[in-house]
Amino acid sequence: MIRSVTVADVAREARVSKATAARVLGGYGVVSDKVRQDVLAAAKALDYRPNELARSMTTGKSGIIGVVVGDIENSFFSFAVRGISDTARAAGFNVILTNSGEQIEAEKAAVRVLIGKRVDGLIVTPSESRDVSHLRDIHRSGRPLALLDRALPDLDVDTVTVDDRNAAMRATKILTDIGHRTIAYVTAVDFAGHAYRGLEQIYTSSVRERIEGFLAVCREAGIVTPERFVRFGATRPEATRAITDTLLSAPDRPTAILASDSLIAIEIFKLIRQRGLRVPEDISLITFHDADWTSVTSPPITVVDQPAYLLGKAVTELLIRRLKGEIRPSQRVVIPTSIIERGSVGAPSGQKT
Amino acid sequence: MIRSVTVADVAREARVSKATAARVLGGYGVVSDKVRQDVLAAAKALDYRPNELARSMTTGKSGIIGVVVGDIENSFFSFAVRGISDTARAAGFNVILTNSGEQIEAEKAAVRVLIGKRVDGLIVTPSESRDVSHLRDIHRSGRPLALLDRALPDLDVDTVTVDDRNAAMRATKILTDIGHRTIAYVTAVDFAGHAYRGLEQIYTSSVRERIEGFLAVCREAGIVTPERFVRFGATRPEATRAITDTLLSAPDRPTAILASDSLIAIEIFKLIRQRGLRVPEDISLITFHDADWTSVTSPPITVVDQPAYLLGKAVTELLIRRLKGEIRPSQRVVIPTSIIERGSVGAPSGQKT
DNA sequence: ATCGCTATTGAGACCGGTCTCATTATAAAA
DNA sequence: TTTTATAATGAGACCGGTCTCAATAGCGAT
Fold first, then answer.
1. CB distance from A96 to chain B under 8 Å?
2. For B313-337, what is each residue's pLDDT tens digit?
C-alpha cells in the first residue's frame, strides 16, 4: 500500500507547521490568506486526500448513519432505503446498510458492528419487540436511534410508522362490505408451528396492529373466530405457496385474501392463476404495498399504499435533527396510508349479502 | 456523549498493562491463560466494545467495501446489491452503499467520500467510459477496484458483466425470426438531444453492446437503417412515456419493442394497454431483466434473464480474493444470460414473413 | 549455584487527524 | 515611544487502538 499523503506532508511542503496546515485543510481556526494559498497549493501538488477515519477518531463523529433493515429484496424496504440514503446524503451523511433477514440474532450482530464502527446514529426496523436489549445499548451509548415501520412499546425513541391498524381495518372493510365472510390474512411473521395462539404472541408491532384491525372489522361484520384464517410463516416464496395451497384446497376456501406484503401477494396471485381461479370472481385480493406489478396485472390489484420513500425520509430527518443536537422528547410519527382501489375486489361468488 | 470504555480502562480494571489487555482484546500476540481470564472478566464487567475506527486507523484496514451503483430503485441493482452484501458479510466485510443516479459527478463525489473513509476496496458500476480519472485514482491509491455490469476498455481491473451483445442478438432474433421488421430499442442512456449519432457516442458499455447486437441482427434480417428506431433518454417514467408515446403515434409504428430495463418496460407496457393496443397481437415486447412483474401480466413478458444476484456475488468474490492478498492479472468475467420466452412475442399484425 | 533460553509482560511510539495553549508578530491605543 | 489588545502560528497532547522492542520471570541444563 502506497503511504498516503498526510497533513504533515502538506505542512512540510508548504513550510508551515502541521497545526497550520491542518487548520486550512480541516477548515477550522484562522489563518492568513497567504498561508492558506500556500497550503492549498501544496495540498493540490501532493494530491492530498483527508483521512476521514482519523478525522472521525478525534471528533467522535463518523458522518455515517447505520441502517438495519429487514429485507432489502422487499421493494417496500428498498424504497424506504432510497428515502433514507437520499435524505442522509443531502444532509452530508453516509449510510451503512445491513439487512437482518428478520432474524433477531443477525440484527443484534449488525447493531454490534455498527456501534463498533462508531456510526453517529442508527435506523432500525426491529424484527422483534421481545428482545430489545441491543437497542437499549445503543440508546445508552448516547447514540440516537430511530425506529422505522415498527414501534416498540417499551422503547421511548423516535419512531415512524404507518397507520397499520387503520389501514388493515379499511382494507378489510372493503371486503366485508361487499359481502365476504371468509377472509384469510397471510403474513410473513413466523411462529414455532405457524399456528396462531393469540395476538400477544406477535412481536412485530406493525403486523400485530394489522391483524388486530383485520380481526376487529371481521368480528364487526359478524364473522365468528376470524382468526381461523390468519396464516403465518410466509417468509419465502415456497412457504407462501404451501400456505396458499392449503388455503385454496380447503373445503371452506376463503373468498378473499389480505396479504401483508407484496412478495406474499405476488405468489398468491400466481397460484390463484395457476389453479385456474379468477380474480376477483372467485377470489378477491388486497395487499399491503403498492408494488409496481400490482398495477399491470389483469385485473390490477387493490392495495394499501404505504409511502415507503416518505417513511424513510421522515425517520432520517428525525434522526438527523437529533444528530445536530436538537433536544426534545422522542416523537412517534404515524404516516397515513391510502387505499388504491383497482380491480381485484368483487363480491363473493356463491353467496350474496 | 458518555465516554466509551477503552482498552486502557479494561487494563486498569484487570491490573495489567494496556499492551497486555490489548493483546487479549485484539486477539493477537500471546498471553497466559490466567491473565486472559482476568482481562476478559474485566472487559465483560465494564461492557467493553472495541472502537473499530481506532482499530482501522492503525491497521489501515476498515473492513468496509464501498459500493457505487447506478440506481438502487432499479430492481436489477437491488438484486445485485443483495448479492454483494450477502457475499461481503459472509466474508466478514461491511458495505457502504451509495447510488450515483447514473450521474458522473455524483459518482465522482461518491468515490471521493469512500476513499476518504478508507474503504478496503470498491465496487462500481461506472456510468461513463469517457471520464474514468476518479477510477484511476482508486487504482493508483492501491485499493482494489472491481467493475459491475459495465466494462471499461481503458481500465484493466476485475470486471463482471453479462453477455450483453449476445443477449441482445438472441432477443432481437426472436423478433426478426417471427417477422418483425420495424423494431424499436428503448434505453435509459441519455444524450444531449436524445438523438442517436453513432455507437461511439454511447459511453455505457453494456448499452453499447446491446445496441450493437440489436443493430447487427436487424441488418442481418434486411432491415435498413434500424438505428432510426433506437430511442435514448428513458431515464424516468415521464420521459419513457413521452418517448413511447411518440413511438406509438408515428405512422410507421414499430411492431415490436425491446426495452433495455424493466423500469422502462413497465411504462411501455402500461402505455400500450392504455392506448387499447394488445400485446402481442399489436405490439411485441421483450425486456432485459426478469423483474417480478413480468411473470404476472397477461400475457406474461418474454425477458432476458440477467442473473443480477450472481453478478453481485461474483464481483464481490473477485474483490475479496484480491483484498485477501491474491496477486493475479485482472479478470473479466462474462456471465451468460438466458431468455425466458413467455407470451409477449407474436407475429406482426399487418404483415407475414 | 550459574547460565541460557523461552514465555510473558510492560513501556512507549505510532496511525493521521483535531484541538488547546503558549508564543510571536502586528496594529491600535495611550 | 511604550503599552496593550489582537491576529497568526507553532508545539505538542490526545483520540483508542496496534505493534515493536526491551525487561522480567521461570525453567531446565550443566
1. yes
2. 999 999 999 999 899 999 999 999 9
DSSP class of residue A200 equals G
pTM for the whole structure: 0.90
- Report how far apart, in Å, the C-alpha atoms of B343 and of each of A64, A285, B280, B296, B305 are: 47, 24, 7, 11, 15
Distance CA B49, CA B38 (A): 17
C-alpha cell belonging to residue B233: 433518454
Contacts of B300 in chain A (CB under 8 A): none
**DSSP-assigned states of every residue in B293-334:** GGGTSSSPPEEEE--HHHHHHHHHHHHHHHHTT------EEE
CA B249 to chain centroid: 34
Closest-CA distance, B53 to chain A, in angstroms, reads 6
pLDDT given at position B353:
37
Interacting residues of A259 by C-beta distance below 8 A, sequence separation 6+: A186, A265, A268, A285, A286, A287, A288
For residue A172, give the amino acid letter: T
Q: Which domains, from first to last, does chain B contain?
A: 7-50 (1.10.260.40), 62-162+308-337 (3.40.50.2300), 164-305 (3.40.50.2300)
How many beta-carbon pairs under 8 angstroms link A with B? 130
Across-strand partners of B158? B146
Residue range A313-333: average pLDDT?
Answer: 95
